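Data card: per-record layout.
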Amino acid sequence: MSYFVTIKNLTKKYGELCAVDNLSFNVKTGEIFGLLGPNGAGKSTTLSVLTTLSDYNKGEIDVNGLDIRKDKMKIKQLIGMVPQDIAVYSHLSALENVKFFASLYGRKGSDLTNSAKEALEFVGLADRASMKPKQMSGGMKRRLNIACGIAHAPKLIVMDEPTVGVDAQSREHILNSIRILRERGATVIYTSHYMNEVEEICDRIAIIDKGQMIACGTKQELVSLVTDVQSVYIETKLPIAFEVEDLKKKLKNMPDVKAVAAEDNTIRIDISIQLNSISKILEQFLTLGLPIININSEVPNLDTMFLTLTGHELR
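The structure for this 315-residue chain is written out next.
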């Protein structure tokens, strides 16, 4: 398995305050990796260290086979940073902003201009190249922020709250852009307070709190840490005088079923997440001549998982 980023036992202190405490995780090459934590959890400090903006007390950090202390300048060339605060110059046009940031990575001449134009086109601002940030909406500024961070074609893109304060259309454009960046071969580290975004685009998710790793894995793996049960709601049409207790008894006798409840024409069955036996459950309904009108499955969402694992909400 190929890892683009490997962090081992990272510790960062500010005086007596330990902001990051023996933190370890890996980011696979070509994945969108979500990094979550409440305010003060150590996310920003971790990203600051990873992007070479801050030193650290101990630990090991490897980026694409390079040691972050020995090969800092090479690593800088690999990374594109999209900060939470919009980092553009108000007196420069969109194109001038992108060209300035791309030039910091050695882009020159026609290569610089072409790279900047391609970045603006990628974020949907090609027709606003001459516009200055002060003339732009919040969503447009966010997209310009992204263009400035990706114009030099980085292999690792760190995005810290890239959709804060934007409208729904801009948010969807940004999320789609992140997916395309992954398809083009980039590795993305993504932080957000919007849990639905993280669930939607991240391949794996790490939850940190008080500078320590709480959990890391796919959404399914994180769900398994807080519960081993999913609730399946089956809407049917119960005949008059139908003995629903007989149906409940048959379902309860199935090996993977934890509990059964009935309300009107909806039957709720709690089953093991690991052993998906929905097809066997449906066979019971069909054997009894009960039509399947609708099926819904319910597992804890990321908000619930985060609250369970950390003891408090993300914000």
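Known properties of this structure: The chain has eleven helices and 14 strands. Residues 38 and 314 are 5 Å apart (CA to CA).

See the next section for split statistics.
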